[in-house]
Amino acid sequence: MKILVTGGAGFIGSNFIIHILEKYPDYEIVNLDKLTYAGNLENLKSVENNTRYKFVLGDICDREIVKKAMTSCDAVVHFAAESHVDRSITGPTIFVQTNVIGTEILLETARDLGIKRFHHVSTDEVFGSLSLENLKEKFAENTPYSPHSPYSASKAGSDHLVRAFIDTYNFPATISNCTNNYGPFHFPEKVIPLFIINAFANKPLPIYGTGMAVRDYLYVTDHCKAIDLILHKGKIGETYCIGGDSEKNGLDISDTILNLLSKPKTLKTFVEDRKGHDMRYAMDHSKITNELGWKPTVTFEEGLKKTIDWYKNNESWWRKIISKEYLDNNRAQANKIKNI
Ligand SMILES: NC(=O)c1ccc[n+]([C@@H]2O[C@H](COP(=O)([O-])OP(=O)(O)OC[C@H]3O[C@@H](n4cnc5c(N)ncnc54)[C@H](O)[C@@H]3O)[C@@H](O)[C@H]2O)c1
Q1: Contact 121, 154 (CB under 8 A)
Q2: How far is ligand 1, taken at its centre, from the CA of residue 320, in Å?
Q3: 85 CB burial (10 A radius; 0-12, 13-18, 19+)
Q4: Distance of CA 172 from the midpoint of ligand 1 (Å)
Q5: In total, how many domains does the chain have?
Q6: Fewer CB atoms < 10 Å away: N or C end of the chain?
Q7: Has residue 178 been placed in a domain?
Q8: Would you give the DSSP letter of residue 125?
Q9: Position 196 in a domain
Q10: Does ligand 1 come within 6 angstroms of the Cβ of 44?
């Protein structure tokens, strides 16, 4: 099978590419990525010389590039997105552009080319927020959409478009909505890598509000395995919810990281809450568990230890990312695209 992966230089996409090339010795991957600030080809160093892997620098909003990259592929796995809620609050336009318009362009091109399988990677954030009072309540495939941030609204828009293509054109797509991922190659603006890196340097760990907002955490390789299963065995037209059975709030995350690194609790610092902050996400993943046999395999404690070790052993990876040169270089890459 030849798969077009969009956003494969990002956190989950790069883990997914490594997983697929390792697991399927005859599969080929084309990775279409714009290399925004979040895209990093260093994530793919281990496969860059693999003859079954090809990188295409380009924007999913550029029809010509998308058509070139997708031609001769059998399937598409769509990760490319603007993914950071805080950035969507200060600048929503690019979120609508990439997440909504970009997805529509991919769908139309895939339909024109007769792509046999399209998997759209989405988030639990489209469902809105659960209360902290009723901890039994969880999101599931039939939960109505109620996004609150520009990020989640744009992802909801993209999910609706995929469903519209399924219903209108009998388009062969599947969707997954997953909870918060963590693990290797996670950009250090997100809470877990940010807290780890700050704790290494004895810098404050900035906790939103009172630290009570709960997220469900899944180790990234478990997410990759779920997408792999859906791609191969999922029923066309269906949505699958993916979760880690690991609900943690900001205080749990900071305490666990500080404990594991033997750092003082005084590093915990409370900062102004995120605007429109959702209080709790949790996922009922029984559909994918019962129908496809998937379940999370890495516990939070185990996953967090592995993640801390990865950041310890890959200091040059994250040091480069937080440097000014890295961000300038990324801007230069983005400008290059305009000339393709
Ligand atoms: N990270 C999570 O916890 C999580 C959870 C559930 C779902 N998701 C979804 O999974 C997908 C991947 O998330 P991630 O955390 O790996 O994101 P990320 O920000 O780490 O990576 C996104 C990638 O997309 C690329 N990209 C952005 N705009 C592009 C464009 N216009 N054209 C081509 N490439 C572009 C970036 O360069 C980057 O490589 C997203 O769709 C996100 O909504 C993420």
Answers
A1: no
A2: 20
A3: buried
A4: 22
A5: 1
A6: C
A7: yes
A8: G
A9: no
A10: no
DSSP β-bridge partners for residue 240: 176
* Residue 253 covered by a domain: no
- The angle that helices 150-169 and 103-113 make with each other, rounded to 10 degrees, is 20
- 123/51 Cα distance (integer angstroms): 32
Active site residue 125: yes
Residue 177's pLDDT band, with cuts at 50, 70 and 90, is very high
Alpha helices in 201-285 (DSSP H): 220-233, 250-260
What is the token pair recorded at 260? 């594991």
Spatial separation of the C-alpha atoms in residues 82 and 257, rounded to whole Å: 27
* Secondary structure class of 31 (helix, strand, coil): strand
Identify the domain containing residue 94 by its residue range. 2-184+218-244+282-297+323-338
CA 312 to chain centre: 22
Question: In angstroms, what is the C-alpha Rg of the chain?
Answer: 19
Q: What letter would DSSP give residue 280?
A: B
State pLDDT tens for residues 252-292: 999 999 999 999 999 999 999 998 899 999 999 999 999 99
CATH of the domain at 63: 3.40.50.720
pLDDT at 323: 79
Q: What is the pLDDT of residues 157-170, one digit of tens each?
A: 999 999 999 999 99
Could you give the angle at which helices 103-113 and 63-70 cross, rounded to 10 degrees?
Answer: 50
User: 101 in helix, strand or coil?
Assistant: helix
